[in-house]
Amino acid sequence: MTLCDEMRLLLGPFDDGELEPHEMEEVAFHVVGCVGCKSALDEYRTLGVALRDVVTVPALEHFAADIAARIDHTWIPLRARLRRLRDAFGHLGSVFEIIGVAAATAVVTLMVAAPYARHFIAGSSPVPVADHVARADAPPIVIAKVSLANASAVLEKAAAADAGPDSAAPDEAAIHESQELVAQLGGGDSRSVAVWNEPHTGTTVVWVPDQP
Amino acid sequence: MSKAARAAVDETELIEQASKGDAQAFGVLVERYQRRVVGVAMAVVHNQDDALELAQETFIRAYQNLPKFESRSSFSTWLYRIAANIAIDFRRREGRHPVLRGEEGERELERLPSDSGDSFATTARGELNRRLRAALKELTPEHRAVILLREVEGFSYDEISEVLQCPRGTVMSRLHYARNHLRGMLKDVEKG
Q1: Structure pTM?
Q2: Residue-wise DSSP of B139-177
Q3: Residue A114: which domain range?
Q4: Which domain holds residue B180?
């Protein structure tokens, strides 16, 4: 690569003033003494003028007004709107924001905790399995982990009991069978069986771990 | 306080007001930057009507997102980058290099300088402009965007690099290629 080739790579940035000072100096010295590079530099400049002549920006008389009209109907993201609302209140905006967040948190906490609190205040507590089964009015408990032979019979009886007040009432046989199953699993005091009430759905849940 | 510093303070206030929803303050910003935003869009899509539409879209998006603007870059650079991104997306979506179609092409031809003044200079200038337009169309959108941002909009290499999100070295090499291509065309016109 000749010196002129190297310099021509720098002519554009030189004309744009984008070279380091020492490079600017180097190119300037070269251009003064080199007719070919001087001519190339002139052509770059002519090109710049011609491009500015060719590329015309359209008239913008109504541009700002058109945007103002569109802004009136523009959807603003909720976050931006909230921020604008907060800023509109000045210093009070931050106070309102904190109060708002606290109130929202309180409402959510109340919604989640209220059913549990109601049960807690009413004195309801987890029922030992044996006690629950022994209660005459308790619905029959379906225990999923039973032998396959027992399972279908127990499920059928439970389904019949769930069908409604018109269908068969919880029969003694189902309750007896449940009692037997619970006894097999270790009784109401066993840590391997847990029973609790789900306040949201009003159902009784029996948790039975895998049995050997 | 210098004039530039006063303008910067003024602009910060305008941005703050506009981000609170003050449409009038935003209108001042629009008037201040509309010319260059349209220029950026023009550099990428190379079509006046599309560029105007994209520039409007740029300002609408900027207005929506002003609360997110964090002064890490200057407002103008942020705005030009939005314009470039919208224009690049548009070009990809259209799946074409800008071409003149139907009425649009005719209108573009009408915009050419008239050579009815029958002076040799006017005719030569008209011919030069026509050829230059044709040569610009031969460039890839990336090369055309770089040379138009530099020569027409007067962006620095760093600004081009930031707006088009490519390294400064890439800006320099694209510029060199585009200039040489267009210079070759100019030489042909002179010889002709």
Answers
A1: 0.60
A2: S-HHHHHHHHHHHTT---HHHHHHHHT--HHHHHHHHHH
A3: 78-122
A4: 117-191
